[in-house]
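Morning, I've got a small favour to ask if you have a moment. It would help a lot if you went through both lines with me. Thanks so much in advance, here it is.

***
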Amino acid sequence: MNILNSRMLRSIERIVDLFLLDLIWLLLCLPVVTIFPATTAMYGVTRKWVMGKETDGVFRSFFLLFRECFFQSMGISFLWFVLAYLIFFNYQLVHSNLLITGILGVLTLLFLSVTVYLFPVMAHLETKWKHIIRNSLTMAISFPISTLLLIGILLISMYLIYLVPVLIFIVGSVSVYVSYTICHKLFLT
């Protein structure tokens, strides 16, 4: 009975940690410019959990990681928002040309593929932003099935939040946990 209680207690503790992690992430994403550092910190906390490292608590770990990766994440976020805007703007301009729309579709898929690896790579490696983007691109191309799985997790999470908005308080951290678990296995190969 004691083993069951400890397993149940650990499960409840993990659910509460996921909820708190999601809540902190949401609060720090309210000023839209901090989405990238907040997401990188969320992946960093999840990384510690997946690797079995002891954390100093969700709040302390999150804020330490947020501060640590702030400037690098902000630099990448500026580049990423510009690229996303250019892709969107070009779709608006050439929506009637089938060839260019197809090319933009491929670029969008490549952009999304790199994006799903961007945050796990930032959380896992301490390197320059050019290397982070290069490593994310390499992983997106090297592991196409995992890339599609990660994109699927992202899209399903967004759809669930769209259907039931209150799920925003748990779906984000759960999807990050699952995504980082997949990425961690890829990092080890």
